[in-house]
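Issue: ligand-bound run for manganese (II) ion - logging full I/O for the record.

Environment: standard queue, default settings, no custom constraints.

Inputs:
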Amino acid sequence: MKIHEYQARNLFIEYGIPVAPGNVAQTPEEALAIARKSGFPVVIKAQVLVGGRGKAGGVKVVNNEADLGAEFSRIKQLNIKGYTVERLLVAKAVDIKKEYYLAVTIDNIKGDVVVIASAEGGVEIEETAKTHPEKIIKFYMQGNKELDEARWVPVAAQLFSDPRLQKSATAILQKLIKLFFEKDCSLAEINPFCINGEGNLIAVDAKIIIDDNALDRHPELVALRDMKYEDPDELEAKSKGLSFVKLDGNVGCIVNGAGLAMGTMDGVNLLGGRPANFLDVGGSSNPEKVLNALKIILRNKDVKVILINIFGGITRCDDIANGILTALKQIQIHVPLVIRLTGTNETEAKALLTAAGLTTFTSMRQAVTEAVKHTR
Ligand code: GDP
Ligand code: MN
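Outputs:
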């Protein structure tokens, strides 16, 4: 789950990471009140959960009240990558002397938490990684969450030669790592991380992504969710007890168990198709879940075929078959259904489906091959 910059900034404040005084505003009057309090110049920034705000004209430093009003209205009317601007952050502009990059994130390939730092801040780190990989410092945590200073001074020393800045950067990094772990982040990023006019370090932007799977232990963070950025199908699936992730292919998949669901997606890819989704109906499925799964998948207009792949253990194949039959009565299924069932109560299930005129498969390979055929 992504959170807005003003929300991430509040977490920075909670953890003692320095930011410029400011607040979020919905109206020009609110913006003006914040600016008067902090003093001009101020920077105003569109609060949208997509990258490249700056390039889209959503970040602007303004020097006086008249410009503030005009720029506030202009930014509020922007459409940034399909998203309207509801709120703007108004903060005292930082007199930036130099921009750095600092982040804590997860390296999925190494399976480790990594601290990433660079003296090339402000720009997109992905760009620097491509053009000047030598300018990026990476420090792997190797499973050790210790925050002791001695561990981080050498990282800070690679960015700053001044001992005072080293000390200050070390303290900020320790706080950022603490926040990263305590709030179950998958990213905590400061870009740009700046030296200001007084020669002090300050976070000029704040980006935080929370691991969705950890939200159950952070009700305070769930409250920050901006529904505008959530996929309605994923929300609906979650409320119905289904694990669902939308993908960009055209083979709708309904599977029992996360492992088989992953295996099914691999199978679809292997045999030349592309899955439209990951969907796990769970271990002990009831007919209702199959109906809900079909409804959600059918909303996706790209779907050309639905592949139902069930390996009955605790899940009973006849429950699944009854779910399919109920769905056929209740909803219009305008794409072919390819059904593979094996395991518990397979015989009963196949009898039910055959009586209704549906074909079933026992072999996963045959079922996937058949499903992919319908996408050609
Ligand atoms: P992003 O483009 O969405 O990452 O937005 P940022 O908040 O990082 O701002 C983009 C750029 O605008 C920064 O890299 C800075 O160069 C500039 N900027 C943002 N805030 C300030 C500020 O307070 N003072 C100055 N001088 N420039 C700023
Ligand atoms: Mn930024």
